[in-house]
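Any chance you could type out some protein's one-letter sequence along with its backbone structure tokens so I can compare the two?
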Amino acid sequence: MSDRVWRSLRAGVTVTIAATAVLAGPSAVAAPELDGATAAAVDHLVAGGLDRDTAVRRITTQDSLSRTAQRLTAELGARAGGAFLEAGSLVVAVTDDAAAKVAEAAGAKAKLVANGADALASAKQAVRKLLAGVRGSTSHTDVVNNTVVATIPAGAAHDSIAAQADAINGVQVRRSAGKASKQANLYGGQQIEFSVGANNYVCSVGFTATDRDGRPAMITAGHCADGINDGEFRRNGTYLGTVRAHSFPTNDYAYSSLSADWTAQASVTKYNGTAVRVTGHGVAAPGSTICKSGRTTNWTCGEVESLDVTINYDDGTTVEEMTQASVCTEGGDSGGSWMAGNTAQGVTSGGIGYFIRDTNGDGRIDNKDKAFCGEKAGEPNVAYFQPIGEILNAYGLKLKTS
């Protein structure tokens, strides 16, 4: 499989999927650092101007704060408009004073807002229905600003849809020159290869696990397993495993068997000769620092921005209940690993990409060129991943940890 073939894969896809293999085969990843993921997240905050002691405190407490966020929002129900981390503290959006007292009693800060969970869900459903079929659009609940955000492609063709979305109570409209699409066509983490018809493609491994019968398994993105020849994944040309089940669109997850020629490692490569341990899985609250490993963009970090995101990809497929983060991903990162500290979070589904230069030599800049993440185009990074918990529950898998 040549570089030329890889560059032609799924041409026209704008936002690509990030992936990282967590397998050690013929060329094993170095032994994981005990606190590698935590150190990487701390470095990300320090690079942004935070002093190291404060950064360490934020990273080492965000997991427990995220669990408290889930508990409080479930307890408060319609009286909560979500929860998020801000400057290392847990903030719970509430609609009344009684709910505020519950949040404060649990050690959180309370923020009085107009829209509770039911109002936000109603607005989200209205936007989701309106944007169905609008390629390149997304919708998500912004708990920090207590609103539902509808991101709609720029251009006159979508002005009417944008106006209709803007008229929905509780909705904020954003227009974007980038488009949301899947990312199986470019380069990223420890890659896996597969074929669909006469075409060759690449994605990446997310995590390793065991199935209901205790057999080793590999987790990746669902669109990477959709329609592949013989259901077979390869790595470096060597048979890796056969797809056992996948779900795409709506969801974006899959798992395959794992050949005895490969040894599953409970770790994620950082692309610097080291790897980080996977000690469990969870749901990081908005505002948490998160990092991903992928074959194209390698190890990159950012913040969780929103849960329960609906994306209408540029190829016409739709996925729901994704998580959005301000992390650089590009094509070929599909299926890769997302980590908050040493806690697995999910596998890459897609992101917003920008065509900023002629990468295929045809003298034009269009959707046949490589799409780059936001930071390379002077725009915010936007990436989406499929939460890991749903994958494990759907297939009865047990995440491999150490």
